[in-house]
Amino acid sequence: YYFAIYKMEIKGINDDLKLIPICDNEEIQTNLLDILEVCTNANSLQSPLVTSKFDKLNSVHKNIWDNEQLIHKEKTNKICEYRKARLEKSNAARMELVETRLNAANDSKIIRMRKAELNNITMNYQTKMHDIEGAMRKADILSTPVVFGILEIQN
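Request: output the structure for the sequence above.
Response:
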């Protein structure tokens, strides 16, 4: 059975790393990482047949990667849009509260403190919004082949 393992680096809100096994046998593909833990190495093979089999695995992987990439970007965008809306709402509430307190203040020290508080809220909002937008921009999946091999099962 010909197989390949790819490393997928998932970038976005929460970065992650996955090993993705690809095999021409679905049952082996599902259990490949566990199977490889108990395997032994054999002689390496280099031939056009082997190369063409690995090219087919690369094609299967490309389809999986394309699908994962699309799903990841959509999911990241939805999460980011939700976080942006939540941040805007909480920021507006905080600003309104501090502005109300500022308008009610008569002491110059309290007024200066409330203005500084408004400035801090604005800066905090801008920083968090920048982080969310950065996560949306960097949403990506980088994929790298880790290993190609042939699994021979013997009784």
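The helical segments are 26-36, 48-104, 108-138.
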